[in-house]
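INPUT
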Amino acid sequence: MTYTISPPPHVKSNETVKRMMWGTVAALMPVAIMAIIFFGLPALIIILATVIAAVVTEVVIYKAASQPVTIDDGNAVLIGLLLALLMSPGVPVWVPVIGAVFAIAVAKYIFGGTGTLVFHPVLVGFAFLLAAWPTLMGTASTPNLGGLWDLILENGAGRLIEISPAAVLVGGAFVLYKRYVDRRVAISATILLLLLLPIVGMGSQLPYVLTGGYFLGLIFLAADPITSPVTKRGRFTYGILIVVLILIQLHFDAYFTGMCFAVLLANALGPFIDRNTIPKPIGGK
Amino acid sequence: MKIATIRTSDQVIIPLQQHDGAVCSSLVSVGDTISVGQLIGDGEFRIHSSVSGEVTAISELPHPSGREVLSVVIKVHDGANVHEGASEESEPEELSTGKIRRIIRDSGIVEPNGRLTLCAKADINTIIINGTNTDDLTANAALMTNSPSEIIYGLKALMKTVGAKKAVIVIELGSAALQIMRTETIPDNNIKIIATPTYYPPGTENVLSRKFAGKKVPRGSTPEDRGVLITSVTAIRAVYDALHGTPMIKKVVTVAGAVGSPGNALVEIGAPIKHVIDECGGCSGTPVKIIMDGAVSGMAQYADEVPVIKTTTGILVQTERDINREPQTPCINCAWCVDECPIGLMPHLLYGYADSAQFDKCAELYIGDCVECGLCAYVCPSKLPLVQIIRYGKHGVAEIAAAEMEVSE
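OUTPUT
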């Protein structure tokens, strides 16, 4: 009789990286569907083209580098989908496609692939597009939360993601519940931002901050497990840092792009925060 | 909760190493006829025969730790396997401290974690009995429900020996033993029952000491240094037996998983696990993994002739359906392991540094504090073998320290 031997533990949770990624993709489906219903065919084309571009880029690069292709883990799909949702519906479709190629090739592959990233690939892709084609990246309108109905369907949405704050929050609640994104970062940053805005005299920005773009940024981008710090104190610090950076950007009227740059800057400080917040084990002095 | 009594195996294998320490030397030789309770191994502590029979071999045989250890093989003679014990019945108050201490030392009592804490010489103020159950091993609850007065007897004797003024018995909320032990301890003001929600890992001494005695244990010292003696239900029960003339030759073991009738059984030390499983209804389905002790931190066994030893708390049988064979993927820094670690370590960093042999970094991140509870590897979505690599890292750190010692000498 032969038996399997392995190091402990002999029971493991069912959660895998694959489930985390696909679960996050599923959590973005409500807002994607809302966007497609509201904006119609252009939104569908942008989403499909960006996701396909991300997946194809990943396959080509990993094949060329003779590395195992890992598109089934859902990371490329997630990057493509998130990037597509940050676009305005009027953008020429080649713009997000180039963004997706850049996100996968530069921000993901060159930095070492899933798990070793410093900067969130979606934000890198977005920043790249913003720098390369600023005129094409503008939006026709700016959302502003007027009434409660705007939480369900935002009429002033300039980007796909801004269409429905409620849909983003439903998906956000799911990923927070499943811990697919970091709770400490997402919750501390959201609460702090909403509290601080009136205090620092920027209460007039509040209706804007309550739109889908900000919820997406704080839950799906800032609290992304790969690029956020790992220590418990570090994650709170990171959330606070992001809020401070957002407030600075908002002061200069940068709106949604300011949110993205705030997270991107905080990404750079992530490893530094980690290094300085290593906890002392129990019993340690 | 029932404790089943099972048939004695035809052959028992008693390893001469049953605790964290040196192998004992054998006091018997091949061909000797020995009786139950006879001393067969001596050294740092004592090992007694659990059966009467003839010694057929003394050789290196598979041990639950995965190594091969010098063991005494005894062919069991039919009948006469009941240990008589001493008939005198006396209250713990009547026995002298020195006598109790000597009896405890002579009876070869080992804690489930492999330590000989009861023999430690220290100034003890509080005794904590850990009555919680690890994973699905319910031996502690079964012992307490079946023999509450014996446990209180053993505890009182121990309190007297070490001079402890207080004792705490930690039991999970909802455990069947809770009410029984509460009733049993009503007359004693200095024995307290604490009900706790289930937490894991239950046996970490520093955590127990902080949670239930309010004493933080600094790095490099043990709870005993702070006046806290942490012991187990098994050991306390063994103290009772020892004071009644029976050394530690049997213990209650939980048989769980894919077996015919899972539950607790009183097993002779040295019984092969195959025999124990067969007596508990045999495997249901094809066994793929046999695990000694808990599912989260136990050792998978490569052979089923491995014997039950004094530290064994359970035998778990897994079939293919129970085993998670998800492939390993790179770490994504999700920090789930950081959130789970009961000690407050950074498991994924330790993994990364140990995996790339940066042992100095491992030491900086307190790798030695890891208690190998296995929670990090349980939650890891990348299915990394964290415990295994952290053990490798500890080994590396120890080697560097040893080399430095040599240089300085």
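end of record. Chain B has twelve helices and 17 strands.
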